[in-house]
Structure formats: C-alpha cells, structure tokens
Amino acid sequence: MWPQVGAELRRLVRFGLVGVANTVLTLGLVLALQAGQGWPPLWANAVGYAVGIANSYALNSRWTFGQRQLQAGQFLGFVTVNALAYLANLATVATALHLLAWPALWAQLAGAPAYTLSAYLLSRRWVFRPPPPPTSP
After folding, report:
1. How far is CA 55 from CA 25, 76, 96, in A?
2. Is 35 in a helix, a strand, or coil?
3. What separation in angstroms does the CA of 74 have from each of 15, 57, 92, 114, 132?
4. Would 136 be classed as within a structural domain?
5. Are 76 and 51 members of one domain?
6. Which of 34, 65, 114, 134 is a Cys-bridge partner for 92, taking CB atoms 3.0 to 4.6 Å apart?
7. pLDDT for residue 1 is more than 80
8. 109 and 82 co-located in one domain
9. Residue 29: which of 64, 13, 53 has the closest Cα?
C-alpha cells in the first residue's frame, strides 16, 4: 500500500508543478499579446487559455501520468475535466463569498485547491486511468 501512496503523491506533486509552470506560461502569453501586441484583453485571454490547456494536457499526459502518446479523445476528456474543475472552483468561491461572507481574496484562495484537487482526481480516474491489471488464464 505505501508504494502506491508514494507514487500517487509523486503524481500529485507533478500535477501541481505543471499547474505552476502552466500559469506562468499562460499569464506570460496573455500579457505579451495584450501589452506587447496590443490585443484586446478578452482575445488575449482566450488564446492564452487555449495554449495553456494544450500545454497542460501535453505535460500532464507525458510527465505526470506517463502516457506514451497524446490522444485526441483524451484531450477532449481533459478539457471536460478542466471545465468541471472550474465549476468546483466557482462553487467554492461563490459559497465562500455569499454564504460564509469571506473576503474576496480568501474566497479565491479557497477556490484554488478545489480546482486543483478536482482536476487531478478526475484526470487520474477518468482521463488517464491506469490500465486494468492483467487477468490470469
């Protein structure tokens, strides 16, 4: 059991590191398009987000979950998972703001782990699920 816990923890840490790197990439691209190229903020954000989700899929697929090939079906599942994780984030932030009356900064800080953990768990169980163990004859 403990080796499995260690392997899962390594995957979770890698997932988090990919998220940090991806945030830097996405924000850098958005700012470069907006400030450097004069793009409207919403267009810059949309392109930055699209590049970020593709980068996140590629890095998580290969490095975090050890997939050998990128697959279109997995990518669509990954996009769906990230949309669901955003809803978890949104629900957490809304609850913290409106039901718990937390300040906006605290509500946003509470939403970040909701997003990350739900994205990881859904990715692990649905998009990058491990292959079933071999059956004996």
Report:
1. 9, 14, 30
2. helix
3. 16, 9, 27, 22, 17
4. no
5. no
6. 114
7. no
8. yes
9. 53
